[in-house]
Automatic annotation (TrEMBL):
<dbReference type="Pfam" id="PF02737">
    <property type="entry name" value="3HCDH_N"/>
</dbReference>
<dbReference type="Pfam" id="PF00725">
    <property type="entry name" value="3HCDH"/>
</dbReference>
<dbReference type="InterPro" id="IPR002204">
    <property type="entry name" value="3-OH-isobutyrate_DH-rel_CS"/>
</dbReference>
<feature type="binding site">
    <location>
        <begin position="9"/>
        <end position="14"/>
    </location>
    <ligand>
        <name>NAD(+)</name>
    </ligand>
</feature>
<dbReference type="InterPro" id="IPR006176">
    <property type="entry name" value="3-OHacyl-CoA_DH_NAD-bd"/>
</dbReference>
<comment type="similarity">
    <text>Belongs to the 3-hydroxyacyl-CoA dehydrogenase family.</text>
</comment>
<feature type="binding site">
    <location>
        <position position="140"/>
    </location>
    <ligand>
        <name>NAD(+)</name>
    </ligand>
</feature>
<dbReference type="GO" id="GO:0070403">
    <property type="term" value="F:NAD+ binding"/>
</dbReference>
<dbReference type="GO" id="GO:0006631">
    <property type="term" value="P:fatty acid metabolic process"/>
</dbReference>
<feature type="binding site">
    <location>
        <position position="116"/>
    </location>
    <ligand>
        <name>NAD(+)</name>
    </ligand>
</feature>
<feature type="domain" description="3-hydroxyacyl-CoA dehydrogenase C-terminal">
    <location>
        <begin position="184"/>
        <end position="282"/>
    </location>
</feature>
<dbReference type="GO" id="GO:0016616">
    <property type="term" value="F:oxidoreductase activity, acting on the CH-OH group of donors, NAD or NADP as acceptor"/>
</dbReference>
<feature type="binding site">
    <location>
        <position position="32"/>
    </location>
    <ligand>
        <name>NAD(+)</name>
    </ligand>
</feature>
<feature type="binding site">
    <location>
        <position position="94"/>
    </location>
    <ligand>
        <name>NAD(+)</name>
    </ligand>
</feature>
<dbReference type="InterPro" id="IPR008927">
    <property type="entry name" value="6-PGluconate_DH-like_C_sf"/>
</dbReference>
<dbReference type="InterPro" id="IPR036291">
    <property type="entry name" value="NAD(P)-bd_dom_sf"/>
</dbReference>
<feature type="binding site">
    <location>
        <position position="274"/>
    </location>
    <ligand>
        <name>NAD(+)</name>
    </ligand>
</feature>
Amino acid sequence: MIQRIAIIGLGTMGPGMAARLARGDLQVTAYDVAPAAIERARAMLGTAEGVLDALGIAPPPAGVGTVRFTDDLGEAVSGADLIIENVPENIVVKADVYRAIDGLIASDTIVASDTSGIPITQLQAHISHPERMVGMHWSNPPHIIPMIEVIAGEKTAPQTVATIRDLIRSIGLLPVVVKKDVPGFVENRVLYALLREAVDLVERGVIEPEDLDTCVSWGIGYKIAVVGPMALLDMAGLDIYKSVSSFLNADLSNRDDVAPMVLEKTGASKLGIKSGEGMFSYTPEQTKALQADRARKLVAVRRILEGRE
């Protein structure tokens, strides 16, 4: 039974993950090599807990678990039943973490990666007892989005998958078991197909960025929150899909590189909210207000989708 969890690497996801796990009466130790990241996570933890309150996610009868922070890796993983690796999307960095913890944990301690798309089979090559490694991909913001992908690598034991699936379910979240270990898993493959087409349409001058967001958010986005893609096929009719896809698929973007517009912006350090400019521009005040507004709306939508409003 999993009771003690270590999160290795905090970044933007760590605080929300820690808050949500603790709300499930789990004991969480959160580690980062950077003191600044730990202090930022401490500040973000209270905000995440407030959002969980707004969602009406009450702690179990046993009460709320604990979250503690440390910059000592050995202390973080000591006695952990599950380790969630949440370091940057770089296989070399992740491999360094696995080698660092390998001698500090028991052979049956489950190691889960929150990678957004690196195949678990590739990550397993860098840790002993690969049968205990699994993908556990949270969606951002992790304390609001209830779906978590569970991915087995070639050497992952079925019991490891079952244990993580059951853990996710036990704290009121939605596990989705991905049957094949493909790059990007499922959520990001679908997302990046959409983003590829969106970037292509803007780059070709078909539509302005603001109008594209309106079109997607209030068009397909509004529907897909209620009716998933497979159900949408049935709702629209497979005959309609066959007819439209027979000519439209050939005209959709199929580029296998990064769009020039994205390369130009990243080359100029225009990375989005984190740098103050990307597809749009942001002041610090706008960023703070935008993040609060988005969290409020995501909470409201989730409550409606769950039938609680």
